[in-house]
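[SOLVED] Predicted holo structure with calcium ion

Edit: marking solved, answer below. Original request kept for reference. I posted the sequence and ligand SMILES and asked for the 3D complex as structure tokens.
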Amino acid sequence: MVIGFGPEAYSVIEGGIVNFEVKILSGTLTKDIEVEFFTSDGDAAGNYSVYYSLFYVRMNYPLFYHCLVPGDYSNTVMTLTFTPAMSSLIAAVNTLEDSFLEYPEIFFGNLRLPAGSTANVMLVPDMANATITDNDAAVIGFSGNYSIVEGGSVNIVLEVVSGVLEREVVIRVDTSDGTAQG
Ligand SMILES: [Ca+2]
Ligand SMILES: [Ca+2]
């Protein structure tokens, strides 16, 4: 018998849930079969619950600061149990909100038989991908006003007013006439 992913490609907005569908693609179940679902990184990183700690010593009192690095989705491992009455099951994976401006990122859902399983099952396809689309924005603008002596040059400064860039942003700057003519 064959069990595998229904759709092999999924998409989700950052913070949403990916419902990977796992189906019986051929054959008929006469008894329960367990299949393990697990996630793996593409260019999106899973949540490894890594704590970064900074250690400060000040006036002989140690202070610890921890921050959780959330990653892009929740690492998920689950056992899916097919019973003879079922034709498909859903493995739900949470994606994680952040405030970074990012490119779309991909992670994978995978299937394997539990260790020691003697089930006569082929897992095909045993991998599906999910694309996380970013939902964050940044504000970029000019920094200040500029004055210049005739014949000189002016360095115009752009700044990220709000938001955090985790990807490239290309901005085109054009000049236009005021009382001076180009
Ligand atoms: Ca992210
Ligand atoms: Ca983001």
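OP edit: The radius of gyration is 26 Å. Thanks to everyone who chimed in.
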